[in-house]
Amino acid sequence: MGEPNVHKRQSAVCAAVAGIGILVPATAHADSAADSVKALPVNALSNRPLSAPALLPPGRTAARTVRTHAAGPLSPSLRFSDVGMLSVAGFAADQNWIAGTSYSFDFGDGSAPVSTSGSAVSHSYSKPGTYPVTLTETDPAGDSATVTAPYTTRGTNFSPYGPTRLLDTRNGTGAQQGAVAPGDTIRLKVAGVGSVPANAAAAVLNLTVNSPTAAGVITAYPDGDRAAPGTASVDFAAGQTVATLAVAQLGADGTVDLLNNSSGTVQVIADITGYFTPAAAAGYTSLSPVRLLDTRKGIGAPAGVVGAGKAVTLTIAGADGGQLPGSGITAVALNVTATGTLGTGYVTAYPDGTTRPATSNVNFTAGQVVANTVIVPVGSDGKIDLYNSSTGTQIIADVDGYFSAGGTNAYLPMDPDRIDDTTSDGWGPIPGAGVRELGLIYTADPDTGDPVPMALGMNAFVMTTTVTNTAQSGYLTVYPFGVTRPVVSNLNFAAGQTVANLSLATAGTDGAQNVKAVDYYNGTSGYFDVRTDLTGVFGTY
């Protein structure tokens, strides 16, 4: 396959950094000789200086200016622009400016004030939050005036919640009782419900589709004056019960929209396991995926089928030979797979030492292999439980990362956007046992070569990955570029199936292309296509 012409493409990360997505060729690499791809696409993003309006959700102004009039001629004003998840630029101005005036910026986080003869200073916070920023203006005569204004970071931290059921159209929980009609949208209020704070920016929702009368998708997106994006949060066939995790950005009113994009009716269920707010809470630590549990092999628990009504207790604290800390983990991101299923049922993930909630995470029928990502609160003993409702099943769990007070990665929620689709990107399906590199964002400006701090600080990407046109049964593995492929899987499928799952994908750095990137591995002997929908990113800048 030859190299495509370079062309421009808009994407959600692009909107967050006010750049343009550029599809460029990358060097192929293979896990086996079966990978026949000669050149691979990198859906990368150029990073020009950030534009504050592009960083902000609807309803939030790009620049917040507060003025104060001193007794003398000084009249300072203070303006902010976001330059990253945790970084801000402060701008000073004065309608009565005098040559020789100096400024001091105190960013309200305990760091030393920054004095400058210029009118702009940038600053990076270590944690999300709302901070009182004080500007002191001093003229050559020694007269001074101050102004203070609050600044709220764009980045957010995670707080575990529940699990709790917020929506069930079968019984009228959270919405009108009854199946959702074709093309209809459920407006699900999340922020301000129960003990979820009113300023929640995103929510972790396990979305389950039940009794669909036709194939289709559920699309989750922030409520507001906008059209539904062309993305998928849950992909389903007629008659199928299937669950997929979503980290859903909320609208300014704290509501998420759930669109039934099918020609039939469908019942929809939503269980919340946490939320993100612009306040200091639990930050994320991304990991290269590793298997913590496999009841088929006795990894993480005794070998054997998990019986009816039984639960596996999985130790998270100190797991993977101590790669996970021994204390302080508040929640963990896992890909949970049910395999060797002996009957119809579900798996529920919940904190050890608590009452099992009336929720579900993985739904299956006899003989199926089904995976779903979970972000589950961890019990005070550092453990979680995985409950099986069916006759029996084997359970696998692969860890992607964890949340803790010491986690340094904040979360930047975004409007959902399809950033790649192999059915239309000019490169075609991924071959059996082949690897496809997906570049996500430039780490250096393509024109100047200057490093891009925000991109360099991005460590994990929240993406719904959908596999379709599957020629053989198998699995997909998503893992960081530049590392040996781990023995894990992200989603499983039978021939002819279309299956979606969320990934908290840790990114590697492709130095040759100057991009953050992940690899997709096709764990079958046949081709399949992949669609990738981006909903947010974890980072430190």
TrEMBL record:
Q: State the source organism's domain of life.
A: Bacteria
Region Disordered, annotated ranges: 132-163
Q: Where is the composition biased (Polar residues)?
A: 145-159
Sorted alphabetically, the Gene Ontology BP terms of this entry are:
carbohydrate metabolic process
* PKD domain boundaries: 101-149
| Key words of the record | Signal
Under the heading PROSITE patterns, the entry gives: PKD
- Classification via CDD domains: PKD (cd00146)
Q: Name one Pfam family in it.
A: PKD
Query: Where is the signal peptide, in residue numbers?
Result: 1-30
InterPro entries in the record: Ig-like_fold, PKD/Chitinase_dom, PKD_dom, PKD_dom_sf
The entry's protein name is PKD domain-containing protein
The organism named in the record is Actinocrinis puniceicyclus
